[in-house]
Amino acid sequence: MPIIAIEGPPIADLNVRRKLVSELTSAAARAYALPEEKIIVLIRENTPEQVAVGGKLLADLR
C-alpha cells in the first residue's frame, strides 16, 4: 500500500483537508494502478512554535 505523507502548517478548514486527501488519493491510485482504498494519506501538522528556520522558530520570525 502506498503511503503519502504531508508535513506543513495546520489546515483549519475540514473541507479543504477533505479535498486535499481526495485529490492526493486519486492521483496516487492512477499512478500506481491501484484502487483508492489501497492508498494511505498521513497529514502531519506543525505549528510555528514547532518549526525553526535558520536557528529561529517561525513563531519568532513573524
From TrEMBL:
GO terms for molecular function: isomerase activity. Pfam families: Tautomerase (PF01361). Transmembrane segments: none annotated. It comes from the Bacteria. Keywords: Isomerase, Pyruvate. Residues 2-60 form the 4-oxalocrotonate tautomerase-like domain. This is Phenylpyruvate tautomerase PptA, 4-oxalocrotonate tautomerase family. It comes from Desulfuromonas soudanensis.
